[in-house]
Amino acid sequence: MVKGVGLRLFVGYFMSAPLLGNFSCTQKGKDIQEIGSLPESKTISLTLIDSIQIPFLGNPMVQDISPSQQRVVFMDQKVFTEDIFIADFEGNILSTFSKLGDMPDNHGGIRSPVFISGEDSILIYGNRGYLSFDMEGKMLSLVKPQEFTGYSFASFGMGRNFEKYKNKLLYFDQGSRKEDYTQISLYDELQVLNWHHPKTGKKIPFNPLPESSIFKSGKYFFRQAWFPAFSIGDNLIYVVYGIEPIIYAFDVEEPHELKKSIPLNLNDYELFPGLGEYTDDFRKLGLGFEWGKIENIKRIGDYFVLAYFPGYDATDRELQWENKTPEEAIAFRESIPKKYPKRIQVTDLEGNRLLDFAPYHYHPETMLLREGQLWVMAKPNPDVEEDFFKVYRLVLE
């Protein structure tokens, strides 16, 4: 573990109580600070204070981090292999094993990121159920699901992790291969979140879309448009339904009453407006990835930290469908990440924007909050093949 990491990166703006300044953006990609009179002003910043560097060649995907145990779980997935690695905070790889393939303790197909479930133990949620292993790869238990269903949605990397509450785990509903996602009526039936009970194999769907949601407007939205970002804090479940720039706060206890909704003011955000009915015309429907989407949310003290993709502007949404030479297609594709980088926004608990910026050093969508510590996956050097990867710890101060 590298303290201070040789650079102390922060992005900060002035804020005050009461807040008298306005924050706005006048040019795409340019964060402009408009400040009125700010007596008793102070700064807020999201600061990189620590890093872990792990030697590795491959395609590492961090799964979970335990600050108290000083452990990092990551995975390397290839076409026919899937290796799980355990490393410490000094960057030493302590063990590696696979649970994919012809072996008695295989998971049958992984369905979520590996979760550090306790002292020296991990949980793999797979098609066979909930499998617990020690950190050497020895199986401790297998609990079969009470009801097996195939899934339509999955995410295997850092940022889409289980959230623990008491003896259960919160996760997004992964859909069903039996559902007809062309029907607008489906939005009345969706249960967006699940409680998982790994010790019993029970899974409880809950969290229908709120009546005030854009998804209840009678319009059609592309598949996974509601794919949620979620977090638990202060006895509330905070949910952002994919493309919709609103934080919904629900009681963490049943019946999970909606307590409040908090509109967001995101930078140059392109919201998919919905269609009158389903179409297979991708020029109208889009491919999903070109529209704005909120990909992560964390509550830290009196603030929300959100990661989002702003979406292409109207010109580029049209341009992506135009005929291009191979060279033009490559140039267009390479221009998109530079023109529309994923961003982080920090707000107060009322949704007032305090920070909004595009991180250069890390992937904002990978935010992981464990034991009060916020971690992200570092971006690799695009010009040099590195034989290591890094995770960074951030603090809001």
Largest sheet: number of strands, sense, barrel closure: 6 strands, antiparallel
Domains, number: 1
Which secondary-structure class do the elements indicate?
mainly beta
Top-tier CATH class = Mainly Beta
Counted by DSSP, the helix tally is: 3
Termini gap: 21 Å
User: How big a fraction of the residues is strand?
Assistant: 35-45%
- The count of DSSP E runs of length 2 or more, i.e. the number of strands, is 28
Q: Categorize the overall geometry.
A: globular
Q: Low-confidence runs (pLDDT<50, min 5 residues)?
A: 3-41
Average pLDDT number: 88
Name the helicity range: under 10%
Annotated CATH topology: Methylamine Dehydrogenase, Chain H
Organism: Aquiflexum balticum DSM 16537
Protein name: 6-bladed beta-propeller protein
